[in-house]
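Sequence, please.
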């Protein structure tokens, strides 16, 4: 038992250490460009131009590093692909703020810092990818067999507490099962030695991005109410960004409206009753993408968009593919009915149908519905009950992990979705 205790913890390569990554990144991306600039002009060391540029670059780099690491912790994320957009976002926001307040700074040094930041972390990603994958030891018993179908981890299925596993990153067990005294001691020893011990459900969620619950009273969601402070901050950010979009892009929105009118008869906007925040019904606004008066069948059939739906117009097909038809929902955001990111609102008739078929469906209304969401970027458009159950698990994951980092990841994936047209109908 003691032999296993001494060998399972192991040590990770220094490239994985946060201190090395951050200090190396600041040195390569901030200090090096500053030194090169001082080498060409030593007197610049006393200028506010250099000081402002360095301070701004440090803030942008630290924010980018933190966001990159947090985003990389979410399931299904190829972290390397988010390095460039994450640092582009943080450097862009910081230096646009400096430009807005008319502080003097060096564009060349700022650009060099941004470029070297992305090169540093991209290079680290390439090198660490060649090292051993994440290694987890699985304690037998209970509901651990579900892990066999999950990818992205090197699983070690041990059969004895005396089994020696070199350089394991953690231990996974079904902590609700009756594992026996020997395995209980093994798990306790691992925790005391500093090795992370995970419940099987926790690992399953982190690798799939889905939360599966059987009873709403279970504490797997933590508090049943998401972070109220972030809800307020997010609503304010949503309102400001929606106002900016409406003001700046109003000529483009007017052009889209004209194309819709020229393409087919009917109103420019499509209005529909949706189930919203805290179960309140509201009217959602979208650019009309279907022919007016083309609905047939019952209310439920009208609310469901089928693949290659014959009701969709020529202009509407383009609008739906690139999600442009969603832009008028900025009006709903300004009215406090929606957010840019959140569970997608369903038509009232569909929502009532799902509530009758699926347990806990109403819980997804605990946050404001969104123009885009975690389920949409992972699953695309769905309507069948089985698919909606899976979407509900994605929605619960979003609510449980409700944070600015997950919202940023969804924004980045939404941009990718808009470019590729993933999941559109």
């Amino acid at each position: 038992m003691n032999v296993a205790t001494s060998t399972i913890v192991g040590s990770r390569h220094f490239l994985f250490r946060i201190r090395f990554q951050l200090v190396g990144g600041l040195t390569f991306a901030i200090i090096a460009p500053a030194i090169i600039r001082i080498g060409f002009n030593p007197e610049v060391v006393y200028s506010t131009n250099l000081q402002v540029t360095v301070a701004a670059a440090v803030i942008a780099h630290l924010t980018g590093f933190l966001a990159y690491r947090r985003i990389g912790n979410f399931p299904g994320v190829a972290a390397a692909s988010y390095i460039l957009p994450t640092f582009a976002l943080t450097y862009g926001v910081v230096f646009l703020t400096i430009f807005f307040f008319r502080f003097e700074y060096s564009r060349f040094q700022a650009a060099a810092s941004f470029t070297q930041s992305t090169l540093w972390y991209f290079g680290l990603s390439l090198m660490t990818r060649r090292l051993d994958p994440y290694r987890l030891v699985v304690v037998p018993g209970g509901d651990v067999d579900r892990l066999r179908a999950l990818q992205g981890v090197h699983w070690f299925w041990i059969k004895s507490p005396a089994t020696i596993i070199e350089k394991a990153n953690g231990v996974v067990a079904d902590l609700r099962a009756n594992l026996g005294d020997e395995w209980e001691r093994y798990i306790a020893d691992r925790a005391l030695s500093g090795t992370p011990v995970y419940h099987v459900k926790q690992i399953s969620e982190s690798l799939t991005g889905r939360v599966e619950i059987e009873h709403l009273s279970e504490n797997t969601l933590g508090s049943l109410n998401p972070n109220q402070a972030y809800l307020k901050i997010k609503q304010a950010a949503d309102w400001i960004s929606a106002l900016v979009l409406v003001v700046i892009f109003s000529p483009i929105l007017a052009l889209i409206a004209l194309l819709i009118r020229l393409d087919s008869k009917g109103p420019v906007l499509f209005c529909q009753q949706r189930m919203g925040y805290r179960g309140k019904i509201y009217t959602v606004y979208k650019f009309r993408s279907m022919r007016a008066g083309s609905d047939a069948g019952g209310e439920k059939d009208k609310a469901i968009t089928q693949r290659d739906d014959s009701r969709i117009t020529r202009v509407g097909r383009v609008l739906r593919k690139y999600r442009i038809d969603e832009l008028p929902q900025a009006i709903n955001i300004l009215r406090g009915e929606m957010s840019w990111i959140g569970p997608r609102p369903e038509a009232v008739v569909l929502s009532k149908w799902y509530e009758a078929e699926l347990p806990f469906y109403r819980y997804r209304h605990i946050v404001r519905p969104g123009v885009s969401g975690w389920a949409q970027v992972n699953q695309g458009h769905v309507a069948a009950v089985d698919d909606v159950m899976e979407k509900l698990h994605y929605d619960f994951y979003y609510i449980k992990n409700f944070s600015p980092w997950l919202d940023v990841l969804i924004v980045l994936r939404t941009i990718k979705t808009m470019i590729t047209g993933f999941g559109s109908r």
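The CA atoms of residues 304 and 383 lie 7 Å apart.
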